[in-house]
Write a structure and sequence with these properties.
By secondary structure, this protein is mostly helical. Helix content is 76%, strand content 1%. The chain starts with a helix and ends with a helix. The structure holds farnesyl diphosphate and magnesium ion. Farnesyl diphosphate binds next to helix 4, helix 6, helix 7 and helix 8.
């Protein structure tokens, strides 16, 4: 991973603007899941650290923009750039990181460049779907999973597929692995929003529903509530929850095991990913570690 961090530092230096170096220095790196995947899959390729750095810059840019869109004040446990330096700066920093990443991407073969670049169109579409869907309560599981695929899974899928191409490995099975890892990762993220506390999360707990986002445990809950309870859940949608309301939601979720049900889907997707990568102990290990995050 040190080689990826060095590549990222080199690209930031090449931007040659002190303000960008300063702002970038305030960002937390995060789990670097996408970079780890690329390095593991394409360990034989000299260009793997650069591709990993490019994908992490794209991901970082998307989070800068996402925090502006979500009006989030915390990211990875520290104040977001929009909170410290304003939304305009966060958008511009995102633009710089994103365009620098694309400048570097053109040095790759056309198929690799196309896989990564088209996944960014998909993730941008996913972000828009997410925002639009938050306008009113969404109880449609398929619609939710389609949005998740676009918003989170596509860049992970593209990372695995592009890395496989770089290393001369099978592209389709790695793409399937990445797609299911991405979906399962996001479902677990959604679960943690409900089951963890703010300190562990590095952002407020139960914030998804406050932002209007109806994640799987809410979708499953709505289906099983009686009419009065359905009304109550709808009335709480996209509002700041008081302590009692948050307790009520968590209690109902426990009663109807909707978190467990969501976790079962994450496990199912993860098992499919493992089957696609039967012989690769390291890739299976990434999945298992990710699934364990939820406990
Ligand atoms: C986080 O979702 C957001 C994303 C994974 C994608 C955001 C994509 C864009 C803003 C499109 C623009 C893209 C570029 C490259 C500039 P979340 O809000 O559910 O997760 P969170 O709780 O971590 O904020
Ligand atoms: Mg967000």
């Amino acid at each position: 991973m040190q080689r990826v961090e060095s590549e990222i530092a080199r690209l930031i230096k090449e931007i040659n603007y002190d303000e960008v170096t300063r702002l970038f220095g305030t960002l937390q790196g995060g789990k670097r899941l996408r970079a780890k995947l690329i390095l593991k899959i394409a360990s034989s390729s000299e260009k793997a650290p650069l591709l990993a750095a490019i994908v992490e810059l794209i991901h970082g840019a998307s989070l800068l923009h996402d925090d502006v869109i979500d009006e989030a004040t915390l990211r990875r446990g520290v104040a977001s750039v929009n909170a410290t330096d304003g939304s305009k700066t966060a958008v511009m920093l995102g633009d710089i990181l994103y365009s620098k990443a694309f400048t570097e991407l053109v040095s790759f073969d056309k198929d690799v460049a196309k896989i990564i670049s088209s996944s960014v169109t998909a993730l941008s579409k996913g972000e828009m779907m997410d925002v639009k869907m938050a306008d009113k309560f969404n109880g449609d599981e398929d619609k939710y999973l389609e949005m998740l695929y676009f918003k989170t899974a596509t860049l992970i899928e593209a990372s695995a597929e592009a890395a496989a191409i770089l290393a001369g490995k099978d592209a389709a099975s790695h793409a399937l692995y990445g797609r299911n890892l991405g979906l399962s990762f996001q479902i677990i993220d959604d679960i943690l929003d409900i089951t963890s506390d703010a300190q562990t999360l590095g952002k407020p707990a139960m914030n998804d529903f406050v932002e209007g986002k109806c994640t799987l445990p809410y979708i499953y809950l709505y289906k099983v509530l009686d009419d009065n309870e359905k009304k109550k859940l709808l009335s709480l949608h996209a509002k700041v929850l008081d302590e009692q309301d948050a307790i009520w939601i968590r209690k109902k979720m426990q009663e109807h095991k909707t978190v467990e049900k969501s976790f079962e889907l994450a496990e199912k997707l993860s098992n499919e990913a493992m089957n696609a990568m039967k012989d690769d102990a390291e890739l299976i290990n990434i999945l298992q570690t990710m699934i364990k995050r939820s406990y």
